[in-house]
Amino acid sequence: MQNAERLYLDLMKKTISFALWPDPPIPMEALNDDRPPVKRFLVSTVAKVLDKAHLQIVKSQGDTEVQRREGRIWPGYADSMIGLARLDNLQTSIEAVLRDGVEGDFIETGVWRGGACVFMRAVLAAYGVEDRKVFVADSFAGLPRPDTDKYPADKGDSLYARSYLAVSKDRVAENFRKYGLLDDQVVFVEGWFKDSLPTAPIDKLSILRLDGDMYGSTIDALENLYAKLSPGGFCIIDDYALPACKAAVSDFRAKHGIAAEIVDIDWTGSYWRKA
Ligand SMILES: C[S@@+](CC[C@H](N)C(=O)[O-])C[C@H]1O[C@@H](n2cnc3c(N)ncnc32)[C@H](O)[C@@H]1O
Questions:
Q1: From the CB of 111, is ligand 1 less than 6 Å away?
Q2: Phi then psi for 253, rounded to 5 degrees?
């Protein structure tokens, strides 16, 4: 790779993860999910009044640079929460499939603001690849309520209540656009994974990146997509540190006799390469 492309991808990773700047304080109402109803009502009422005068009350998050770099927090401004090590892993995985001629498109299941998918598209642009697509799969409305009859491991999961995790398709598309990367190599797959993935227009994959946090979201993606992953393709698990996600991966691998070594990326990301 030429120096200019390498520098472009380096800058993209730092920009997408907001690593070039300290995180500014975030508006008080953005933290409303954590507040009891009366406080929540007061904060949003005051915020609305202040907004009319172009004023905001903000709160410093107090996160350290290391926490942000390692993708250990829910960031205020970054377009991806996965941190630099997992973005590096995404780049080296894509470079490996391009180098080795592994056939197939790329997908992330669970995209939030879309930053990791934007980065996938940027790597294709940097290498001048025009015959691979990036599938962007999400409800674009946050996580589902746990289906504990089907997936008991998700019992007690309350991420569905977090409005912070619900990012609209328009906002994700706008994020691609602002980096100059929204085109017909980007395909949105909207809906709950159990409904959207079985009929998604996907033929072959070379990068399967799972970031849906829950047992159900992880197993739904694996059951519907792993068979489409080409030999030599990468199965990347963002949430391996979460017990429910890890259990889904273990159950799926046991059921399908997958023995490929699982490699740690950082404190939570892991991957294996399909034999
Ligand atoms: C932790 S965020 C993903 C972070 C993202 N990969 C990044 O680069 O910052 C989890 C995302 O998964 C989505 N999600 C989780 N389970 C889902 C499901 N079963 N169906 C559709 N979307 C789901 C949520 O809407 C949310 O956008």
A1: yes
A2: -65, -40
Residue with tokens 């996580």: 143
Q: How far is CA 33 from CA 12, 62, 87, 163, in A?
A: 31, 18, 28, 7
CA distance 71 to 85: 8
* Alpha-carbon gap, residue 135 to 121, rounded angstroms: 10
144 C-alpha to center of ligand 1: Å?
10
Question: Is 138's C-beta closer than 6 angstroms to any atom of ligand 1?
Answer: yes
The pLDDT tens digits for 139-186 are 999 999 999 999 999 999 999 999 999 999 999 999 999 999 999 999
| CB 112 less than 6 A from any atom of ligand 1 | yes
Residue nearest to ligand 1 atom 12, measured at CA: 110
DSSP string, 143-168: PPPP-TTT-GGGTT--GGG-GGG---
